Amino acid sequence: MNPNQLLQTFFAPYAHLRLHPGLLLTLVGLGRPSNGRVPTYTKPNETIIPTRTVHADASLIQVRERQISSAAERGRRLCLIVARSALSLALQVLNGTPQSEEGAPCNPLTFVEKCHDTSSVNGLLPCQLASCHFTGIENPNNVIYMQLVNVFGFFWAMLFISGVTDMMLASTFSTWYWSYHKNDLPFFALTSGIHRTLRYHLGTVAFGALIIAIVKVIRVILEYIDHKVKKYDNPISRCVMCFCKCMFWCLENFLKFVNKNAYIMCAVHGKNFCRSASDAFSLLMRNILRVVVLDKVADFIFFLSKLLISIGVGFAVYYLLEWNYVYEVTKGERLHYNYVPAIILSIATYLICTIFFNVYSMAVDTLFLCFLEDCERNDGSPEKPYFMSKNLMKILGKRNKKNT
């Protein structure tokens, strides 16, 4: 039996006591009266005031009764608190086992062994009315650090998966470009690209993803700091935070650009990440005008394509819901706002198109980087022929010389 049950058993007969205001009781023992009488506790020169009828004004009587009632309630609560502490201490002394308060820290591994029911014979039975379970973490700072680790792991994992897919696509497209006879392309070109990526280039992708993940975590920390310092409304701190966020945003986009081209060069030559990034960046800087023109034109075409497809799907859904034949066949009720599903499907279509056009974007970047290297390494002679397709040679005005 725990202390709470013992208190309820011992103090049930005394629940109706009315105490004089300011009366403090000292417990000298605990026990149940044998004769059924209610014992009285007094201190020198003070007595318990019995209830009696006083012929006075009704309002004065009500006020006096409320004062006596509140004083009695405070005295009863004080008795219970003192009794509980004394009982807990007595049980601890008699049984030789520590008594834990509710909410006290405990170890679930040793709780079952050390906690015993004191009401059992020799106190050998395990606790039935007490348990040790998780309620919270003592140090919240560790939680913040672990959440930061989770955010970092999430960014790293997502960038790693994205990098692996880019490496697979780059390996496949580069295999097609560097095939002199395009019709002789291996049947399992994509499977070969997947095999090479998983066997040789996972470390390269992980390292590239790690760099961008670190920058992303720094940006998250900057956003957190900016959220905290907003309440001070300091123009200097706002300027510094804006500069830092802008700088790391530019750094992240630059690293994404370098990573993408490094994956392409790694898929072509099989070198490590740093060497591939250096070669790709040098090649692009030597052809900076071509890079800018192709990049902007390709981005505009991809954006225009995604926009037209999304708008087309939205209009198709809207007019399909306006068509009476649909409701005649489905036996359904008309929608009140047909533009709502049309807008939702347009947004979903744009997101899906973004995923699909990323494949085309990787194909354009891979073929463009291979084209730049082909132009620098080869001159169209029989010893160094161009590997670009015939259509591309016609557009650029280039051709391979034949043996005479």
From TrEMBL:
<comment type="function">
    <text>Choline transporter.</text>
</comment>
<dbReference type="GO" id="GO:0022857">
    <property type="term" value="F:transmembrane transporter activity"/>
</dbReference>
<protein>
    <recommendedName>
        <fullName>Choline transporter-like protein</fullName>
    </recommendedName>
</protein>
<dbReference type="InterPro" id="IPR007603">
    <property type="entry name" value="Choline_transptr-like"/>
</dbReference>
<keyword id="KW-1133">Transmembrane helix</keyword>
<feature type="transmembrane region" description="Helical">
    <location>
        <begin position="339"/>
        <end position="360"/>
    </location>
</feature>
<comment type="similarity">
    <text>Belongs to the CTL (choline transporter-like) family.</text>
</comment>
<dbReference type="GO" id="GO:0005886">
    <property type="term" value="C:plasma membrane"/>
</dbReference>
<feature type="transmembrane region" description="Helical">
    <location>
        <begin position="300"/>
        <end position="319"/>
    </location>
</feature>
<feature type="transmembrane region" description="Helical">
    <location>
        <begin position="154"/>
        <end position="178"/>
    </location>
</feature>
<feature type="transmembrane region" description="Helical">
    <location>
        <begin position="198"/>
        <end position="222"/>
    </location>
</feature>
<keyword id="KW-0812">Transmembrane</keyword>
<keyword id="KW-0472">Membrane</keyword>
<dbReference type="Pfam" id="PF04515">
    <property type="entry name" value="Choline_transpo"/>
</dbReference>
<keyword id="KW-0325">Glycoprotein</keyword>
